[in-house]
Amino acid sequence: MNFGALARSLSHSLRLSLGSKKRLSKAPTENDVSEVSTPSVSNSSDSKEEEQLKREHLNQTVAQLNERRQPYRETVELILDKVSELEHTLYEDQQQEFKLRMALERQTERIHELNFSLDTEKQRNERLVQLLRGVDSDSCSESEPESQLLNGIRFDSKGELYGSISPMLMQQRYDELHSSHRQAHRLLAKKDKTIKMLRCDLEVLRGKYDSICADYRNEHRRLNALYTRYLHLQQKKKQQVFILKETLGYASDCILYAQQTIDGCSRGFPIDPQNLHNFNQNFEFFMRSLRSCCCRRRLLELQQEQGVQLEQLQQAQEWKQDEEQQQELSKQETKTNCQPQLEQPKHKRRSHRKREKY
């Protein structure tokens, strides 16, 4: 069964159900009217206020019924819209399917034609191969009349094969192959040019890479030298700080023991020999550490001076090397410029000697 017919039947059934609901909803209103009308007829002497109250009651009931119907109407309308959209999409799908079937039929016909042309080309190629190779025969083992018969059959078959092959087709194939051969040569020449250009670029990049690697190595060596120098200086500084702290400790001990002896003397007590001994000992230690600090400072100054001198010597050597290289380059240029000038007088002398001989 078609999907469109199914959707139509569904919408029709929904409309029927809505109609039945409407009829059922109308029935109580009529009963209410009859109920309202009967007492109005029976009680004609009632006032107009009761009629107005009944009318208001009827209007309220009708409004309530309409409010109850509203969501059902919205859902039905949504269902109908969805069904119409599905019908439209189904129609579009059918059209697309028809187009695809037609395209498939065309492709199948094209494939059949290509297969037929391929079979014919294979047959022609086989005939050409037979013509080029010829028919193998063992003429030695056969007699003369049999060989004559076979030769006649061969000539007949060759004539048939030549007749079946069209020269126009062969010329067309030859032209196609010739043009493809020329295109291949052009492409090959272009590829060779591009390969040469890429090789030149590769050589340039290799030179740049080598120079960058050399610079990197030099900078790495320089960084390592600076790092080692930094570590050495840091270690020396730590040693100096340690020695200075030690000297300051000795100095503070000396001051402490001197203060103790001064306090004892001010109070009238005799000088304690232990304090005096400690003071003398700490004072000796202080003087030794102070001398060592002075000696280390002098050594550092001397080392710095030597380092500056070494750097100056290295710079002087580098300058000398650069000057020597420039001199060598200038000598080579002068040699290259002087060679053609020397060759010219030699050629003149040889020509003059030849003339004298003649």
Automatic annotation (TrEMBL):
Record field: compositional bias (Basic and acidic residues): 46-56
Disordered as annotated region, ranges: 20-56, 321-358
Composition bias type Low complexity, residue spans: 34-45
Biased composition (Basic residues): 346-358
Protein name in the entry: Uncharacterized protein
Species name: Drosophila mojavensis (Fruit fly)
Top-level taxonomy: Eukaryota, Metazoa, Ecdysozoa, Arthropoda, Hexapoda
